[in-house]
Amino acid sequence: MKGEGASPKVCARLTDVTRVYPSRDGHGEVHALGPLSFDLHAGEFFSVVGPSGCGKSTLLDVLAGLALPSAGTVEFEGKPVAGAVPDGVGVVFQEDASFPWLTVEDNVAFGLRRSGVDAAETRRRVEFAIGFMGLRDFRHAYPSQLSGGMRQRVCIARTLVLQPRLILLDEPFGALDQQTRLLMGDELLRLWRETSATVLLITHALDEANLLSDRIGVMSARPGRFIDIVETGWPRDRDSRLAERADFGAVTSRLWSLLREESMRAMGQRSAA
Amino acid sequence: MTSLRSLRDPLLVAVSLVLLWQVMHMIAGDVAITAPVPTLEHLWTMVGQARFLPHLRETGLAFLQALAIASIGGVLIGVVLGGHKLSGEVSEPILVGLYSLPKVTLYPVILLLFGLGMPAKVAFGALHGILPIALFTMSAVRNVNRTYLRAGRAMRLTPAQTGWYILLPATLPEIFSGLRIGFSLTLLGTMLGELFASQRGLGFLLMTAIDLQDVKTILSIAVLISVFAVLANAALLAIDRRLHRGAAPEGPRR
What we know:
The structure holds two protein chains of two kinds.
Chain A: E1 10-22, E2 29-41, E3 45-49, H1 56-64, E4 71-76, E5 79-80, E6 89-92, H2 104-114, H3 119-132, H4 148-160, E7 166-170, H5 178-195, E8 198-202, H6 206-212, E9 215-219, E10 226-231, H7 248-272
Parallel strand pairs in A: 3-8, 3-9, 6-7, 7-8
Antiparallel strand pairs in A: 1-2, 1-4, 4-5, 9-10
Chain B: H1 2-28, H2 36-48, H3 53-83, H4 85-100, H5 107-114, H6 118-142, H7 146-154, H8 159-195, H9 202-211, H10 215-247
Helix pairs in contact in B: 2-10, 3-4, 3-6, 3-8, 3-9, 4-6, 5-6, 6-8, 8-9, 8-10, 9-10
């Protein structure tokens, strides 16, 4: 759709990745993911949508190096990812991961201080991230004094200071209200444009995926596989006002038509379990 | 102004307690409760006497040793049991059972094991304090938010860094609450240990005073220990609140 001549640069590559883990009751196994192969292009905004329990988060864990694939290989910038988060990859979780015992400023600086970056550089990057995420007025506050949206900003800022080339987000706005979600989406787009990082976002909100992404991977019910990868073709310089466009709804409808049957299957799986 | 205001409430409580004491003295008379002023005077002279100091030192030493054993032992037991799921599940009901047991019933056994004197008091004090500290630590370690650990991995922390910068601060508030309760119970245990079959210490003075019907001395010692316990607890509580400041928000806003 985009009509770029040469094939795009690869940021991360998954080859025949599956993940199987023992089920919680101790009998049998859960086949959570795959086999799944795909390339994440450098600099793109890629979203993953799929029915709940389809292995979206497992995909993120495997890609981040937080979980090992049962079979297949994961590469980041040409090097294999093996059980540890590679340098250059940042992860933002669905749950609030801000540390309650640290102020906003110390939370943001946390990863940098542990990684041996010198104090002046740490200060500079923390200053930038705090400003970028609109946290200036809250730098001395503790997370418990902030709203859920603000806490998630702290977590994003904490990842941002590490200057990741690939940012993985696992439903980071899942617990937020709709208006806050839209605004946070705009912030995320701005962050993506200004850092030129590659972004992979896991979400269950179809219009959110549509609005933010260059490409959207649509996953099947468990075991999760991509049934289709939808290219949106939106301009790079976009924000939540994109939803006003006439062709916006068509993409969301396409996603839903792909997902409807899978979601029904996933519901069946869960009631059977 | 803030310091004045923070002092006002404790002072009010203290004054009310002394008033209550005076009223009870007027009802019960010198046979059971001596009046506040003569009692405090008696305490003052008693503390000034040279023969009082060895007793104070004996109790203080017994308490500090018991507290050290209870704290270090309790935290170690709690960390091990909290970190290992099966051991924790097996031992928790046992620890809870022991915790609810009136440990005075075990005192004869302690005496037979350790003999009369310091070791028995220390053991009895530590026995009181170690259980709540172990239980609180175990639950603190067990309930560490897994997302913090995942975040640590995502920020490429080494295991040692994860321990020091995430596990320790994440568990410290609850462990400290355990230490605070352990402190009070260790003091209780040490004092109980001194009440029976001891030859030195505040507990021994107390029992001697009971035999002599020396009400002034009984109340003096009670006041001394109460003041110590209340002040220490207030200080620990202040630290406890400070540690919990971040962890327990008053109604998290989403």
